[in-house]
Amino acid sequence: MGFELAGKRVLVTGASSGIGAGLAVAFAQAGATVGICARREDRLREVLARCTEHAPQSQMWVTDLSRPDEVDALARDAVAALGGVDVLVNNAGIPKRRHVTALDIATVEAVTMLDYVSPVRLTLALLPQMLERREGRIVNVSSVAATLSSPGEAAYAAAKAALSVWSEGMAVDLWDRGIKVLVVYPGVVDTELFTLPDNDPFTASVESITVEECVASVMDAFAKDELQVYVPEWFAAIAARKAADVGAFLAGTAAYVRSQS
Ligand SMILES: NC(=O)c1ccc[n+]([C@@H]2O[C@H](COP(=O)([O-])OP(=O)(O)OC[C@H]3O[C@@H](n4cnc5c(N)ncnc54)[C@H](OP(=O)(O)O)[C@@H]3O)[C@@H](O)[C@H]2O)c1
After folding, report:
1. Stated pTM of the model
2. β-bridge mates for residue 89, sequence order
3. How far is the CA of 97 from the centre of ligand 1 (A)?
4. Residues 145-184 pLDDT 10s
5. Ligand 1 pocket, mutate which of 90, 94, 117, 207 (most atoms under 8 A from CB)
6. How many angstroms does the Cα of residue 197 sit away from the middle of ligand 1?
7. How far is 229 from 232, CA to CA, in rounded Å?
8. Which residues line ligand 1 (CB under 6 A)?
9. Which residues belong to the active site?
10. What is the residue with the minimal CA distance to atom 45 of ligand 1?
11. For 10-44, how does the pLDDT look when each residue is reduced to its tens digit (9 = 90+)?
């Protein structure tokens, strides 16, 4: 049980802001050398400076993970520069708050590509060197949307659900191979995700938590080698209620949406 982070190499995707930036700094503070990546170079530089205060060998890559060739290049570059990747944190993601009647297939494909296919691609590229060492950790940042079928988010929820189910299947396949998988289910964390363009406004009346609170819960679950963590934790009870009676849950959600319109 547990995973000693001192001296380990951690690659965090989507680390230019929000949860990814917070996790990158937390892993650096815990003694790991951190590799961070995203598209916005200026924001990455700020996060890298916070990481190198604790872990001077930390590095950054400006990359667009919606492009398969850039995902492959990131895997190669990270292994070459860091000497290997012990912990992969698949955090980069985009929201898609859009009613199903307004979705087109290109949008669904783009969301699926970044939120599901890209982390799977990066994982498959980095898995062999973890298997060789018989040690590794993979943290996949999903969403409560994956289990709660959040209204107006079908494309996003489906991509995150795919990531969750993939993670569980992978955890089983790798059970005795020294590699553990943690799935993170954030609820509403106060980040830029809710102000990105090309999304419907976020209207759900759910109290948000801070990035710091989210990061603390993830690091705690990581230290305990847990398989999943809901942040905040009370979302796990809602997911359990849905699982117990899907029909009642979906009917209740639809009634709530009707009452709001
Ligand atoms: N905030 C929440 O309440 C919440 C709830 C559930 C799940 N999540 C999940 O948590 C993760 C982090 O989101 P966040 O809330 O911290 O929002 P955020 O601040 O917008 O972070 C998203 C990160 O992903 C990166 N990213 C987006 N598109 C990318 C691309 N094509 N290539 C490379 N990097 C890309 C962004 O960097 P660049 O723009 O610089 O590329 C940014 O660093 C996401 O997977 C999100 O779905 C968040």
Report:
1. 0.98
2. 12, 139
3. 14
4. 999 989 999 999 999 999 999 999 999 999 999 999 999 9
5. 94
6. 13
7. 9
8. 14-20, 38-40, 43, 63-66, 91-94, 114, 141, 143, 186, 188-189, 191-193
9. 142, 156, 160
10. 93
11. 999 999 999 999 999 999 999 999 999 999 999 99
Please name which of 143, 155, 56 lies closest in space to residue 100, comparing C-alpha atoms: 155
Question: Which pLDDT tens digit goes with each residue over 203-224?
Answer: 877 889 999 999 999 999 999 9
Q: How many CB atoms lie within 10 A of CB 106?
A: 8
Nearest CA-CA partner of 44 in 21, 26, 65, 27: 21
> Quick one: which atom of ligand 1 is closest to the CA of 43?
40
What does the alpha-carbon distance between residue 242 and residue 246 come to, in Å, rounded to a whole number? 5
Distance 244 CA to ligand 1 centre (A): 31
Confidence of residue 202 (pLDDT cuts 50, 70, 90): confident
